[in-house]
UniProtKB/TrEMBL annotation:
<feature type="compositionally biased region" description="Basic and acidic residues">
    <location>
        <begin position="362"/>
        <end position="373"/>
    </location>
</feature>
<protein>
    <recommendedName>
        <fullName>Relaxase</fullName>
    </recommendedName>
</protein>
<feature type="compositionally biased region" description="Polar residues">
    <location>
        <begin position="350"/>
        <end position="360"/>
    </location>
</feature>
<feature type="region of interest" description="Disordered">
    <location>
        <begin position="328"/>
        <end position="384"/>
    </location>
</feature>
Length: 445
């Protein structure tokens, strides 16, 4: 059983209290006045106001987890009266019936209203009211054989029972002390605040728990909450807490309070893992973007880009692949992509005048002896098409092979494309060479 008490201030007047107890039929399936009337409640405010007292009415709200019969119900009223020193026979008692959230608990609950100013002019005692409320509830549960509900003051209640000589009751409370007490999802103040805004805290709590149960992870939960108009932010004072807000920026409550069986630290760990995963993805994206920026010059403009688009670009514009640079500077790098009729290593165009030297090999040509090449004639078949083809080959090499060597073509007129006809011409020349000439040719080709 749960029992709560509230002191209603005189200056607030009886209007809101009377309306809540007697007139809210849209929030309750039934409202039954068991004893007393609204006039008696209003009279209590008049008396307190005439005596300049701060409080006018003590409001008790009583509910049971298990069904109670009429005899048990009135016994519950008397026990609260005995605890605080008033007779419940003169109190105003109203019964409300409505379904509990998720059908958890008995559908009936009761409101007991007692004037703060008693007939003798004294004010009701209010010392340690929360502890005393729990003590009455635990004693009622033990005496009526009901399930003991663990509360915040279990240890203090057990101590109070021993002080009153109720050792049997204190022993039964020891088991309740070992049970984790339930947590209130929201306060009565939050409940009334949401009511004034036309919102239902029980419905909101149910909706959020449904979202949680249908989500397969923290990412899905956060996404579904956002779609439903909720957002979750980290607490400002307690960094381990996360607070839920609705679409109107109204604070609903902490995640650990609203969600069933979800502890604050457990949800904090889940959020930490989720945030760390986002950070890791952002770091990977940043690395990829920086890599693309560094390599930028070699990325194609489009998948349909032609080699001619690069024909006018020098290889030095691609600094990302400085391979063979040292060899190139030493003059050792050669391009296998182009072939010239005038070989830098040997003059194979003139094969009829070679003579053997003392080593039995062909005489070195002008390239080996560094003789001037002014008398070399331009081969036939050189035209603008061949020149364009050579430029195309160079550009294709840049794209396809990431070629970094600078291909210098001082005289483009000597460049010929490697065509089937050109290959056949080379074969015919090789056939005309002697054995020694062939060995020399293939060693230097």
């Amino acid at each position: 059983m749960i029992g709560k008490s509230t002191r209603i201030q005189t200056e607030s007047g009886p209007r809101n209290l009377v309306n809540h107890i007697f007139d809210k039929h849209h929030e309750n399936e039934e409202i039954n006045v068991l004893q007393g009337s609204r006039e008696e409640v209003c009279q209590a405010f008049d008396i307190a106001s005439g005596m300049s007292k701060k409080y006018a009415v003590r409001h008790f709200t009583l509910s049971s987890q298990e069904p109670l019969n009429t005899q048990q119900t009135y016994k519950m009223f008397r026990m609260f009266g005995d605890e605080y020193g008033f007779s419940s026979d003169n109190s105003t008692i109203v019964e409300h019936r409505k379904q509990r959230e998720n059908h958890a608990g008995w559908e009936y609950h009761y409101h007991l209203l007692e004037p703060e100013i008693q007939d003798n002019g004294k004010v009701l005692d209010n010392r340690a009211s929360r502890l005393r409320n729990e003590k009455v509830c635990r004693r009622f549960e033990i005496e009526e054989g009901l399930k003991i509900i663990p509360g915040k003051w279990n240890h203090a209640v057990a101590k109070a029972f021993r002080a009153e000589g109720l050792y049997e009751y204190a022993d039964k409370m020891s088991d309740a002390c070992a049970i984790e007490r339930p947590r209130a999802s929201y306060s009565s103040g939050k409940l009334q605040e949401m009511k004034r805004k036309g919102k239902s805290m029980p419905h909101i709590k149910t909706d959020i728990n449904n979202i949680w149960s249908q989500s397969d992870g923290i990412k899905a939960f956060l996404s579904a909450m956002s779609d439903s108009g909720f957002r979750i932010e980290q607490g400002t004072k307690n960094k381990k807490s996360y607070i839920i807000y609705d679409e109107d920026n109204t604070q609903i409550g902490s995640v650990s309070r609203i969600l069933k069986d979800v502890r604050q630290n457990d949800f904090f760990i889940m959020m930490e893992d989720f945030n760390n995963e986002i950070i890791r993805k952002e770091e990977k994206t940043a690395v990829r973007q920086s890599t693309k920026k560094a390599v930028g010059g070699l990325i194609k403009k489009s998948t349909k880009q032609e080699a001619d688009d690069y024909a006018d670009q020098g290889l030095e514009s691609f600094p990302e692949f400085p391979v063979f640079r040292a060899e190139e500077e030493n003059g050792n790098a050669e391009s296998d992509l182009l072939r010239s009729e005038i070989s830098p290593r040997g003059n194979i165009a003139d094969s009829g005048t070679d003579t053997e030297n003392t080593n039995g090999r062909a005489e070195p040509d002008r390239a080996d002896t560094r003789e001037p090449e002014s008398d070399i004639t331009e081969p036939a078949g050189i035209n603008e098409s061949n020149i364009r083809h050579a430029q195309h080959v160079v550009a294709s090499a840049k794209i396809k092979f990431h070629f970094s060597n600078t291909v210098e073509i001082r005289d483009i007129s000597h460049v010929r494309p490697i065509t089937p006809e050109y290959i056949q011409e080379i074969k015919e020349r090789v056939k005309s060479y002697g054995k020694d000439d062939k060995e020399y040719f293939f060693r230097h080709l």
